[in-house]
Amino acid sequence: MTQTPASSASISSAPASLDRYRRLDAFLQRLHGDIYPEPPSPLHTSITRQMFERLMRMHPIPAGGKVLDIGCGQGVALEVFKAAGLDPVGITLGPDAQVCRAKGFNVLEMDLSFLDFADGTFDLVWCRHALEHSVFPFFTLSEMHRVLKPGGVLYVEVPAPDTSCNHQNNPNHYSVLCQSMWVQLIQRVGFPKINFTDLKFTTGMGPDVYWAFTQQKPG
């Protein structure tokens, strides 16, 4: 059998591909200036505990289950997971990583779109108020799906656009999409059944809405 040599077109495209990746990396590096710390707040702590309890009723995670907290902030959810007997690891960028480590949490500095974990590592991927920080959420969601075990659970919570809080105006928010678009993206990466709910409350700026999506990876 004779092997066909690579065409000149494919050879010449390699440097161009590398240049595209360099430009993407430079773009992402520029966005590091938009990162800010996320200190705990009574509202977010309350919602975290409430939604984790709800998730455990829907999809109980066994003791010792491995959890990935994407965008872990200063460790509010990590504390909840440890108290429940789970084995959590958090990822974040910026000063929050050091805050978490000082509290004894296992936290890595890692971009939410490039998860350096093997396929099928986690029983639960928790992504609360982090996905809106992705510049390409479809790819980010596909990474979350990849690192989940078959039968594992993904929890995503995002802010709604055009509320009194105007989350779309936050300079570190790049993907504040409508609810139906989030449902579509989550389904397209491989979650056929999605349970979602509106979290409505009032802040000092007026009424606000978060959307919570819970889904299980097919076994």
TrEMBL record:
GO terms for biological process: methylation. The keyword Transferase applies. Keywords: Methyltransferase, Transferase. Gene3D superfamilies: Vaccinia Virus protein VP39. GO terms for molecular function: methyltransferase activity. Signal peptide: none annotated. The keyword Methyltransferase applies. PANTHER family: TRANS-ACONITATE 2-METHYLTRANSFERASE, TRANS-ACONITATE 2-METHYLTRANSFERASE-RELATED. This is Methyltransferase type 11. It comes from Phenylobacterium soli. The lineage of its organism: Bacteria, Pseudomonadati, Pseudomonadota, Alphaproteobacteria, Caulobacterales.
